[in-house]
Write a structure and sequence with these properties.
The chain is an alpha/beta fold. It has 15 helices and 14 strands. It has 2 domains: 360 residues, Zn peptidases (Aminopeptidase, 3-Layer(aba) Sandwich), CATH 3.40.630.10; 129 residues, Glucose Oxidase, domain 1 (3-Layer(bba) Sandwich). A hairpin with a 2-residue loop joins strand 1 and strand 2.
């Protein structure tokens, strides 16, 4: 019933938008599936005619069914994730992909409770991910190498020497540490090594930006699991100052949390090209959060790249010029762990030869939000100065998506190149990257409503990280547009990456970015990334 209802809506949508010229115009009805298997994909438009939202929803329905059969979740480490991985791997294998299943361990952290108070007055706080559990009542607060005020350059707690001087021999010492310069996990482990029984990390306060003033909401990193045992909480800059000024032995800290180590896997599929030494890679995280099925986040990214991958591999005549690699990442929701492992893990991470061959990475994390905008990672920083390094060649990848939207007359938006999704590991080692994003927990503005419709004042995805992130939480319209945008980008880089890394391939037939007059971005209202804002590992 659910499938037939949606397909009926999709037919109405396609009919309407074709009348107004919103979607790509085709000379006749799309070819049958057998027609797509046998046709010559020698032009961009021929591939676009062979992928659509109906194909994507076949996979979204499958992910929904998997979640329904496995306690309502597809989180890494659960049977729902394992079944999702089996589903993707089996389809890739049947289509002729070279499939690799990369198993790895990861840790899941759950905060049961946390509290912080000054002489009985509660202070807003939360534990940092992977904190230990304990209670320190009326503790002895010791400030660690603080550097206060706007413009400060705090390195508080980054060196063991920062803890030299104060007496840490008591049984209730609370290290008060300021954000800045190094990983939270390093600060906390240095404090524990010095003899602290608890840690409070407060925001840096070096700028007026809320990101450097408000409560942090950070992670210590999975590397502390098994070694860090003391409670670690975080607070805002102003509350950090209040704790620093508090009377002796009036601050209490408590954390009750559990960390469970589990296993999961990445699914990697290669479609060999004429040039095996120039690899274009595309990825999406396959896992959901524990709370729900994750059909929008990130079934949509997983399903759109699966749809394009199968359309190319199932075709009897198509051979890409460049080798194509598709990835479905595990444990993204636990801290980008699957993609980090792929890039850095010595067991199955990139060899030097594989790294040298990797031309680019395109990321698709949430591409069907119900209250969507069409966002492209702002690699050229035309709207958002990036807080991360953007490798050369990334702007050319941004142009691919903006070219498609411009060709079709679809308004698009810059979204901050924040490093908060699976592309982060790739850009950290200099791999050019880009991708799409239709919005998460952010609020749609009136300006965005005027451009893309939907409802101003509501989240882009009202079911973000919730149990209601079901197949009914996905925009058919956004998926219909973005599966074509993704296919357009993949088709182009499958032919040539000359604009990205200088490797000459073959000229793709159809309208390429070089022939496009860009007409956007039409808005400058969206910030943030696909990964939860505030889940900062460093500085």
């Amino acid at each position: 019933m659910r499938v037939s209802n949606r397909r009926g809506l999709l037919g109405v949508f396609v009919a309407i938008v074709l009348l107004v010229g919103f979607l790509p115009t085709v000379a006749s009805a799309a070819p049958s599936s057998s027609g797509c298997v046998n046709r010559n994909l020698n032009q961009i438009d021929k591939l676009l005619e062979c992928v659509d939202a109906e194909d994507v929803f076949v996979h979204l329905d499958a992910f929904q069914d998997i979640a329904d059969a496995n306690g309502g979740t597809r989180a890494s480490g659960t049977p729902g994730y394992d079944a999702s991985a089996d589903y993707v791997a089996e389809l890739l294998g049947e289509a002729g992909f070279i499939v690799e299943r990369q198993e790895f361990s990861f840790s899941v952290y759950t905060e049961n409770s946390s509290s912080l108070d000054i002489d009985g007055t509660p202070i807003p706080t939360q534990s940092m991910q992977y904190s230990g559990s304990d209670t320190v009542a009326d503790g002895n607060v010791i400030a660690v190498d603080l550097d206060l005020g706007l413009g400060n350059s705090s390195t508080s707690g980054c060196e063991a020497a920062d803890f030299v001087g104060p007496d840490w021999s008591g049984s209730d010492d609370i290290a008060l540490i300021q954000r800045g310069a190094c990983a939270f996990g390093l600060k906390a482990t240095n404090a524990q090594a010095a003899g602290a029984e608890a840690v409070v990390i407060f925001n840096q306060g070096n700028t007026a930006d809320p990101d450097r003033q408000d409560i942090i909401g950070g992670t210590l990193g999975a590397g502390v699991v098994g070694t860090l045992t003391i409670p670690v909480v975080d607070v805002s800059y102003s509350d950090g100052l209040a704790i620093d000024a508090a009377a002796p032995n009036t601050v209490s800290v408590s954390v009750d949390a559990t960390t469970v180590t589990n296993t999961t896997e990445n699914i990697i599929g290669d479609l060999p090209g004429v040039n095996p030494d120039n690899v274009a890679m595309f990825g999406a995280h396959l896992d959901s959060v524990q709370a729900g099925p994750g059909v929008q986040d990130n079934g949509t990214g997983s399903s759109t790249i699966l749809t394009v991958a199968l359309a190319l591999a199932d075709n009897k005549k198509y051979v890409p010029q460049n080798t194509l690699r598709f990835a479905w990442w595990g444990a993204e929701e636990s801290g980008l762990i699957g993609s980090d492992n792929y890039v850095f893990d010595p067991v199955f991470g990139l060899t030097q030869e594989e790294y040298d061959a990797l031309a680019l990475y395109l990321n698709f994390d949430m591409v069907g939000s119900p209250n969507f905008i069409y966002g492209v990672y702002d690699a050229d920083e035309s709207t958002f100065p990036a807080p991360v390094f953007i490798p050369p060649g990334s702007a050319a990848l941004e142009d691919l998506f903006e070219a498609y939207y411009s060709i079709e007359g679809i308004p698009y938006e810059d979204t901050e190149f924040s490093g908060r999704s699976d592309y982060d590991a790739f850009i950290s080692v200099g791999i050019p990257a880009s991708g799409l994003f239709t919005g998460a927990e952010g609020i749609k503005s009136p300006e965005q409503e005027a451009i893309w419709g939907g409802t101003a004042g509501d989240q882009y995805d009202p079911c973000y990280h919730l149990a209601c992130d079901t197949v009914d939480n996905v925009s058919v319209e956004a998926v219909e547009v973005n599966v074509d945008a993704i296919a357009y980008a993949i088709y182009n880089v499958a032919a040539t990456t000359e604009a990205v890394n200088g490797v000459v391939g073959v000229e793709p037939k159809g309208i390429t970015p070089d022939e496009v007059v860009f007409d956007g971005p039409q808005g400058t209202f969206l910030g943030g990334g696909g990964f939860t804002a505030g889940d900062t590992v460093v500085d």
